[in-house]
Write a structure and sequence with these properties.
The protein is α/β, with parallel strands linked by helices and 610 residues long. It has three domains: 238 residues, Aminohydrolase, N-terminal nucleophile (Ntn) domain (Glutamine Phosphoribosylpyrophosphate, subunit 1, domain 1); 197 residues, Glucose-6-phosphate isomerase like protein, domain 1 (Rossmann fold, 3-Layer(aba) Sandwich); 142 residues, Rossmann fold (3-Layer(aba) Sandwich). It has 18 helices and 25 strands. The strands form four sheets. The chain has an eight-stranded antiparallel β-sheet, with helices on one face. The chain has a seven-stranded antiparallel β-sheet with strand order 5-6-7-8-12-13-14, covered by helices on one side. Helix 8 runs parallel beside helix 12.
């Protein structure tokens, strides 16, 4: 969960690397550092905290250095400190690393016995000392890196440079993401193409088990056994990865307001103009073997898993197949029943979430067809999957997912329609009806966003709370969980989402006049029962914030405050509308509390470690 960038060429690179790290700070912001090679000597600067802390140290690097690499860290082994910050350097060698070396303790003990001196608590430093040790055997950086790789256990992507071999990087990929940018008289590498697109659009997305030798004029690939490999170069459109605030205070707020456009774009992409026919190729179903599918597992982490819960409701209702929703971090450890008739759907914004990636690799070994819903082309998960439905939501920089969640839910709904049609469960008449609902959705989301000032007013009454409960029934239950997750992520308020019917099975013990309770009560088939649950809260003095229709006087009469939400008769799509006021509510609370909305403490956007 770290950001990596490297450059070798004919241009001064310290500022270039720093700017690249700024685009990668969402991957880690506990500490940062840059190392360059200038006049045959290694120079390094490191700092603790957000990346801007490093900027004042850039003058300590040679401004005309034309080879270097940088790193933003999300701590795994060792607290955030200058000593634990990357790059790590020793005796003319430098290493940066993303991932976890699981056997580092064993390696470290052996290295200490051999006289190595460690200056950090990180697992990464063992790579540095192993490369140094192996290099002394034959004075070959190629040989040193090749011999070190089999000693390492875990998921890792790392890069090595040495004073003794100026102008040469060796980069290694095993599970953690790594992409090479191909230039003219210059080359790059990074953990995300986002950092490289200002400089080149031609990329090589490294596969697991690959080593790259990178110079200013040459890129060569080999496998871990030393066998040369062919290069598969991709050209990426720059506009797809542009990420600017465009006048918004935070990326998160901008991304919340981008949701109507994301929905419109998706609907227009999937449906043929003027007809009700789904474009199967755009949702990844063209030629996909659905006829034999007997069951479905949906896997994901955090927000992606909660989107998957809504997918379960959609698929079981419309496609008539049993669906389970699994936390990817647990899926492969519980011996799930898997076979060629089991479809596994991977939910992921980044396409690099390690637990999800490991889950689909595990399922693929069992013969399962793999379908992914993903936002990033050429990502690791999309390359493993048999078919991918790309969200095309644009870059999501805010750590707390908003537009990607809505895109996932919408894509699952469209997948459901496509599967339903293909399996003969949804008629053309029904499909036309659902498309009519879809066409109304973007304007309704815009109406929900128009309530921002009203939501801000409500947030004033609750931003000092220390706990919050979210309640929902049916499709609103996963939305309650997602609303609670958003609040805890960015405001640091303890929040939990519960099914309304479960209130009396434990959580009701928490209810008193100090506890805010956000109750989702759209005009759906669960409305009456949800009002009964709200009555139970009111009878015990709870402070209820209702989420429902503007004209709903019954709900308003039970609530201390209301968050107004537009309504649509299609319950599945109502879930998309219902999350909008909760996103705005969480954002408003966080702003009032003064937290770091886009980069909340202890979190990173792309989770590439277990």
């Amino acid at each position: 969960m770290c950001g990596i960038m490297g450059y070798v060429g004919d241009k001064p690179c310290p500022d270039m690397i720093y700017e690249g790290l700024k685009k990668l700070e969402y991957r880690g912001y506990d500490s940062a550092g840059i190392v360059v090679l200038s006049d045959g000597k290694i120079e390094v600067v490191r700092s603790v905290g957000k990346l801007f802390e490093l900027e004042s140290q850039l003058p300590h690097l040679s401004a005309d250095a034309k080879m270097g690499m940088g790193h933003t860290r999300w701590a795994t082994h060792g607290i955030p400190s200058v000593e634990n910050a990357h790059p790590h350097t020793y005796d003319g060698f430098a290493v940066i690393h993303n991932g976890i070396i699981e056997n580092y303790q064993t390696l470290k003990i052996a290295l200490l016995q051999q006289g190595a001196v460690f200056t950090s608590e990180t697992d990464t430093e063992v790579i540095l000392h192993l490369v140094h040790r192996e290099y002394k055997k034959d004075k070959s950086l190629t040989g040193a890196v090749t011999r070190v790789i089999p000693l390492l256990e875990g998921a890792f992507a790392f890069a090595v440079m040495a004073q003794a071999e100026p102008g040469v990087f060796y980069v290694v990929k095993n599970s953690s993401p790594l992409v090479i940018g191909c230039g003219k008289g210059e080359n790059f590498f990074a953990s995300d193409a986002l950092a490289l697109l200002p400089h080149t659009q031609e990329m090589i997305f490294m596969e697991d088990g690959q080593v790259a030798k990178i110079t200013a004029t040459e890129i060569s690939l080999q496998d871990f056994a030393g066998k040369p490999l062919q290069q598969d170069r991709k050209v990426l459109p720059q506009t797809q990865f542009l990420a600017e605030k465009n006048g918004y205070r935070h990326f998160m707020l901008k991304e919340i307001y981008e949701q109507p456009a994301v929905i419109r774009k998706t609907i227009e992409r999937v449906f043929h103009s003027g007809t009700f026919q789904l474009k199967e190729e755009d949702i990844g179903l063209k030629g996909f073997p659905l006829d034999a599918i007997q069951r479905i597992h949906i896997v994901g982490c955090g927000t992606a898993c909660l989107a998957g819960m809504l997918g379960k409701y959609f698929l079981e209702k419309w496609v008539h197949l049993p669906v389970t929703v699994e936390l990817a971090s647990e899926f492969r450890y519980r011996s799930p029943y898997l076979d060629a008739n089991t479809l596994v759907i991977a939910m992921t914004q980044s396409g690099e979430t390690l637990d999800t990636l490991a889950s689909i690799k595990f399922a693929k070994q069992a013969g399962c067809p793999i379908y992914a819903i993903c936002n990033v082309p050429f990502s690791s998960i999309s390359r493993v999957a048999d078919s991918t439905f790309y969200m095309e939501a644009g870059p999501e920089v805010g750590v707390a997912s908003t537009k990607a969640f809505v895109a996932m839910v919408l894509d699952l709904y469209l997948l459901t329609l496509g599967m339903g049609v293909q399996r003969g469960k949804i008629s053309e008449t029904e499909l036309a009806k659902q498309r009519a609902y879809l066409q109304r959705l973007p304007a309704l989301v815009e109406q929900a966003l128009q309530q921002y000032e009203q939501v801000e007013h409500v947030a004033q009454a609750y931003f000092e709370s220390t706990n919050c409960l979210f309640l929902g029934r049916g499709n609103s239950f996963p939305i309650a969980m997602e609303g609670a997750l958003k609040l805890k992520e960015i405001s640091y308020i303890h929040a939990e989402g519960y099914a309304g019917g479960e209130l009396k099975h434990g959580p009701i013990a928490l209810v008193d006049r100090h506890l805010p309770i956000v109750a989702l009560a759209p005009r759906d088939s669960h409305y009456e029962k949800m009002l009964s649950n709200i009555e139970e809260v009111c009878a015990r003095g709870g402070r209820v914030i209702g989420v429902g229709a503007k004209e709903d006087t019954r709900l308003a009469g039970l609530c201390e405050h209301m968050l107004i939400c537009p309504q649509i008769e299609q319950e599945d799509l109502q879930s998309i509308l219902s999350i909008i006021p909760l996103q705005l509510f969480s954002y408003s609370i966080a702003v009032l509390r003064g937290t770091d909305v886009d980069q909340p403490r202890n979190l990173a956007k792309s989770v590439t470690v277990e």
